[in-house]
Amino acid sequence: MLTDVIRSRSSRKPAAPKRRARPRIEGLEDRLVLYSTLGAQWPYASRITYSFVPDGANIGGYSSSLFATLNAKYATATWQLQFQKAAAAWQAVAGINLCQVGDDGSALGVNGNQQGDPRFGDIRISAIPQASGTLAVCLTPPPVNGGTDAGDIILNSTSNWGVNTSYDLETVAIHEIGHALGLGHSAIQAACLYAYYNGTKQSLNTDDVNGIQSIWGPARSDIFNSNGQSNGLNTTAANLNGYIGSNGQAAIPNLTIGKTGQSEWFSVTVPSTTTGTFVARVQSTGLSILSPKLQVLTPSLSLLGSVASANFGDTVGITLTGVTAGTTYLIRVAGNTAGSAFGGYGLLLNFGSATQPLISPPYTAVAEQADLGGGSSSMEAETATVGDYTAQGDALEASELRGRRDAPPPPAAGPSAPGQGSTSAAAIDPGPWSSHGPAKPNRGRPASAGASTAAIPAVHQPNRRPSHKAIDAAIASWKARGLLGPSGS
């Protein structure tokens, strides 16, 4: 039997040599962090403002027609609401406050502060004719662009704008404000920062949230909800007696509603100097786009007054009469989900007879500086030309198909602003892997009046392949994040 076993084994053919495994690159789609950033960030997160540019303002040699374009289809309050909701989406998840301010109609790129210019918002929203298929262009925030042009958004006035239908204005506003806050394009099609318009997107994707928080961090907590402190319940209400001055007034700035369902509770006792009237106000006006909600209650939680606003940035108040010294009241502050439920605010208390002024906005003025360029590890800075104005920026295309086909012939020249000439536009490549160096010989100042070349506000060069430099940088970034092994596998 042993012989048979030996014979049986020895009669087997020798095993074939093992083949060496070929190295392969594993698909990483589900593991990659595919947002990109622009290497740009506003100096002050406490108050980043935006404004709507009035019609007639000089935007690269064109007269802005934002109001005429959108008022032709919607009431002003309706289309501005789409931008307010878009700004609120970003404010809700990041450590920033956004605030709508007025705009005096100065020309794009006029000399002034890169942030905190009193004439207009840090992010200015305008509209001029642009190349067919381009929905909007956003000029990169500082320090990539160092002047007043930083963060400005220019819509295509010839696009067929809609509300809750293509081209959905809120969807485009979310995308462009994301750029204005420092995000580049995402390679995830479901992300709001995807380089092409591919449907209505009125809420942020996880990739969008991760991207914006990589720049600004999550929504911040105030002094009453940090360092072990919490005033989220009536039983842990923060006592404000120490804030009351000799005039019977208290002003508490830098407060924040930053979490879903959050309320802040405060308690206050009427001082001996009272005039018999107690006025409590919550102010987000000039501070953020929080829609404030205020309640005043007794310690036993009997409701004495309640008020709320759905406006994106407002001040609400409650007045109680016949109050007596030594009486304690509870104050509850929250965000109104009918508007913007998140953002910064100030609390004002007045037991005196004098009128109490609103809290002044934080100081955010930063003078104009030289452009520094920028770009994430996976994307070099792009050059955007709007009319006769050139700066670093990104564009949103109406469809990916257009971005892949041959460039269309340039459109007919649009009208120039009175007294302004124009020059032909440089190209913008909007793809998420686009890569070409900036071609900006100066600060982006408009060409001198009298230039005769027809203006093409924004033209894109499709079919651009990523440069070797961009590919190498992307791979290095993935390795640094632990998403790719040292050998590339």
Automatic annotation (TrEMBL):
GO terms for molecular function: metalloendopeptidase activity; zinc ion binding. Residues 9-22 have a biased composition (Basic residues). Residues 38-218 form the Peptidase metallopeptidase domain. It holds the Pfam family Peptidase_M10. One of its GO terms (biological process) is proteolysis. Keywords: Hydrolase, Metal-binding, Metalloprotease, Protease, Zinc. One of its GO terms (cellular component) is extracellular matrix. Residues 414-427, 444-458 have a biased composition (Low complexity). InterPro entries: MetalloPept_cat_dom_sf, Pept_M10_metallopeptidase, Pept_M10A, Peptidase_Metallo. It comes from the Bacteria. Residues 1-22, 402-472 are annotated as: Disordered. This is Matrixin. It comes from Aquisphaera giovannonii. The lineage of its organism: Bacteria, Pseudomonadati, Planctomycetota, Planctomycetia, Isosphaerales.
